[in-house]
Amino acid sequence: MPDVASILVAAHGPVRVLTLNRPASLNSFNAEMNRRLRVALGDAAADAAVRAVVITGAGRGFCAGQDLNDPELGMVGGAPDVGGVVETLYKPLALQVRAMPVPVIAAVNGVAAGAGANFALGCDLVIAARSASFIQAFSKIGLVPDCGGTWLLPRLVGRARAIGLAMTGDKLPAEEAQRIGLIWQCVDDAALMDTALALAAKLAAMPTKALAETRAAIDEAMGLEFADALSMEARRQDRLGRAHDAQEGIAAFVEKRAPKFTDR
Ligand code: T3D
User: What is the DSSP code string of 84-105?
Assistant: First the structure.
């Protein structure tokens, strides 16, 4: 049966909310949902009125990773082309999130497993409900972390914890995920969407281009020597400093008024 709408799209002022909507399988990714999510992200990126994106899940889960029953991908029986799935579906999705011109917040409402966990961790800020959890489920089915997990995990929590999480596949509760620095914040379940939307609204009022450059600068600096990182920062400041928002921000500070940021 075709999905009714595997991605729900809603507007909250300048914030675009995308909801993964396959709750019967904990919003696991079939190829169709993956493609629809990429279209929805593309639409948000192309719409100048959108200044932040929130991604969450319908029902009791956030995302249980790859739909292991997806007939389109032939996951069960035979020899599925797992590498091809990662290359053609998860890699473009993870790169697209990383290249969004606006901040992307994952509001993790329930379990986030496998590619669902790493998709969330690849967003700019992760807020999780207290009842949510993160599971590197790959080892249990004979795979390695994907959707950026091998890159993200050691950078977020260090090698020891990355290997522990990835090898055991143990469930990490949201509170513990916050304590070890895997995510930005853990909040009471009832406060999840309000907290995520408030944070998104705050970011939406900020200099959007500078926020996207901040993400790119921090990612780039991870692979640079200190002196090279300083030069990279100078190049980005040179570009941003000439743009409207930096001039507006400085002028507003000097004139003791609220800034009006418009760049995107
Ligand atoms: O080609 C490639 O595979 C490349 C990409 C790989 C990326 C990956 O993500 S690999 C990892 C795939 N994900 C998993 O291995 C997680 C599988 N799910 C679970 O281990 C558990 O469901 C959870 C720990 C996430 C949650 O457990 P629980 O007890 O809260 O829920 P449940 O009863 O297991 O699941 C509820 C329903 O969702 C259930 O269906 P049913 O019995 O009610 O009809 C279950 O089968 C379904 N479901 C959960 N995860 C998946 C799924 N159906 C398909 N695919 C899933 N990944």
Answer: HHIIIIIHHHHHHHHT-SS-EE
